[in-house]
Amino acid sequence: MRFIYFFLTIFPYLIYSQDITDAINWSIENESGNARYSAMGGAFGALGGNLSAISSNPASGAVFELSRFGGSLVSNINQTKSNFKSNINNINSQNANYQIGLVYVFKNYGSGDLNKFSIGLNYQSQNNYNQDIKISGRNNNSIDNFFLNNAQGINLNDISVGSNESVSGVYRWLGNNIGYYAQQAFLGYQSYLLSYDSDTNSYYSLAKYNNGLDQDNSTITEGYNNIASLNLSWQYKDNLYMGINLNFHDILYEKENRHIETNFDDDSAITRIDFRNYLSTVGNGISIQGGIIYKAGSLRFGLSYKSPTFYAFEDNLDQYLETSSIDNDGISYTDIVDPRVTNIYEYNFKSPSKFTFSSGAVINNMILLNLDVTSKNYSKSSFKHQFDGVYTDLNNAISRNLTNVLDYNIGTEIKINNFSLRGGYKIINSPYEDINENYFNAASFGLGYNFRSSTVDFALVNSKLNYNFQLFDTGLTDSASINNNKVNIILSYNIIF
User: Fold this and answer.
1) What average pLDDT score do residues 410-432 get?
2) Distance between CA atoms of 263 and 374, rounded to whole angstroms?
3) Which of 141, 213, 267, 455 is positioned for an S-S bond with 494, CB 3.0–4.6 A?
4) Is 13's pLDDT higher than 90?
């Protein structure tokens, strides 16, 4: 049983714990659209005529000759491998999401230059946060340094519990008046992991691990970053298509992290540490988008711009710390610090804008080719709070450490009568300034059949995501190398009318 009840409070500017990883999480866009779109690697910026492509280039809606309604089911199979101190762990997970869209085409049969216009709506996933990570190994660094670093400069009286006070009350007061870091110092001191030397006016750890210790860190994340695109698009004369989107973004992110340390030195007062964090993040955002597609014979060219997405977030954080210890007489103790207080924190985030340049070709109405190149400057991401200056250091770190990247989507389709064979490849490069390598890549394959009044499509997408997972933001900053292999199976059905 986790918590019996909660004390709710809204903390001021000092408690924030966002970092660069959060900026990347909210900015990365890895669209999981319908089967045709996904099978071609999401490369539709110059082709259009696809429900999911509306979220890539708003001009796509005007390419449709007939109205269309469709939906997709997406099954995600995750395999995550971690490498920590040469110790390898594998863990599997599975989840599902969906896509749904509608475009209604209005044709102008007069002599005007406006051949047709369309209104549409598409809803799909921009990112999927469902993943299980297990990290374990022998280490010479401990979580005690996390608590020690946060305790620097904290007055002992502030993290002590008086006779007329409670653990919950002091923890809540620290969040309201000093900040998140003071709460971490409180957890370490009240669990007897940390002690205080009055002669030096400094904190020290009661854990000894000169011979190393065993660490087990498990993280379960769930959630999504979905986008709903309200589209208006039109065709001007025969060769030019234009469109605009009003995009609504919806984020849910839940993370449960548990860190356990055992096998300390024989003379260590601390014999076991169990630290748990439960984080829930909800966010809503808005962006605008514009795009064009131009036909020149068999060639197609596309250009789209998406504004920064302006998000409003709320974090809910619960914490728990348990330590086991032994005294000089060999008596064992277990100390639990369970404040049962939910830290609630509200803030804003601006993701970077992006430009997408596209080129494609339609050969004999049988072969489709498309290349998308997207430019996105992650260093322009920024956090904001109602109190000025809260995120100055973090935003400066984002500006220094993140950079502009070029991402690539390439796809092809071959039509044989009513059958279609598709393939694609996607590359999302690392947003870090000092890392010149792929962050994410995906190979895809698909089939489709056109019944004239409807279509059915299938896609198989195999993606790989490589990154470093840092255990904590201070003290225990050791990282594990993470390799995430994901298989998406997508089935779509569209009605043409």
Assistant:
1) 96
2) 49
3) 455
4) no
